[in-house]
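FIELD: query
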Amino acid sequence: MGTNRKAIPLLLLFIACHPSMAAAGSKSHLLAYVQNIMSHSVSVIDLDGDQEPRRLELGRYPLFSALYPSDPEKLLVTLHNYERREDDDAMVLFDLRSERVLKRVPFPGPGMPSGFVHDARRSRIYIADENRHRVDALDAVTLDPVFEFPAGLIPVHVDISADGKWLAATNRKSADLYVYDLEDPGRDAKTGIYAIHLGKSPGADWDAGAANEGISHPLDIHFAAEANLCYVSDMQARQLLVVDILKREVVGRIPLNGSPFDFVLDRARSRAYVCLVDGETVAVVDLAAGKVAAEIKGLRLNPIHCALDEAGGRLVVSCWGGTKEGGVYVVDTRTLAVLRHFPLKGEAASIGITLVRMP
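FIELD: result
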C-alpha cells in the first residue's frame, strides 16, 4: 500500500521546505520517506535534488508506511515494538505539511504491527500483527478498530486482490498463507477463512539464520493481475512462490540466487523486483516466463525493501545494513544502473519506503 499511489500536489509544503525552488520554476521532485527501524527515525530524501536527507522522529521502531487514504498529505507509519513493550506498538498518523504526529493508534497488549494494506472498497486498513498473531481491521478514515482476523504464527505482510474479494496474510513461522474471503459476512473458519500451507514450518523458536533444508519462511506478498493468484517471497527456500488461492496450493516456484525479503510489482503486474537480503542484489523477475530476467548488483548492506517510481523509470531500494547502518539506492529500471546512493549516516536498518511527488 502507498508506494504505487500518486499523491496530490503538496505545493505549499514543498515551497516551505525548499524555498529556493519557488523561484527556480516548477520542476517536480520525488521525496522518499524511509523508516530506519533501529535508529527510531524516518529519513526524508529528495531523490531529484541536492538537499541532504532530513531526520524525523515519529516514535520507536518505525517499520512500514503509506499515504493516508483519506488525505495524501498525511502519512501512516507502523511502530513495530521490536522489544515487545506494552505501550510501544502503534500506528501513527503524521502530517507531511506541519511535520507533526496527529494521532497515535495503540493496540492492546504488546503487539508488533507490521505490513498493512488499504481496502478501498470497504474503507478499511488491514494490519498484520506479528506478536498477537492477528490481522487487525481499522476504519480507514477514523483509524478506529473494527474487528480482528485470526492468523497463523507471526503474520508479517498482507495484500488484497485487485477485485477486492480476497485478503491474504503471510505467516513466517507457521509457513502458512491465511486467506480471508472479504465477501463472506460471517468471516468464520468454515467458509470465509482458510490456510494454505506453503512448506515445512520452522516453528516459533527457529532462527532465520540457521541452516535447515526444506524449511519455508514466507515474508512478502503481492497479488497477481488474476485475482486468484498471488506471489510470496520465501526467504529460506530462496524462491518466489506462485500461489493459487482457489486451488489452495503452490502452483509455481521461481528460483532465486539469494534469500528474498520484500518485493514490488510493476503496474502491469508482469515484473517483480525482489530484494535478496543476504547479499547485494535485487532480482528482476519476468513473472510470465517464471524466471529471473536480470539482476541489479552492487547494492551494499543487504537490500531489504523497495518502491517503484514507474513514471520516472526508477527503483528505490532500502538496505538493512546489519542493524548498524541503513541506506538507499536509486536504480534506473531501463538500464538497471545505480543512479544515486544515499548512505544515511547515523541511521540504522532502513526498511519501509513511501514515495511522494511534489512540484
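FIELD: remark
Residues 1-25 have pLDDT under 50 and may be disordered.
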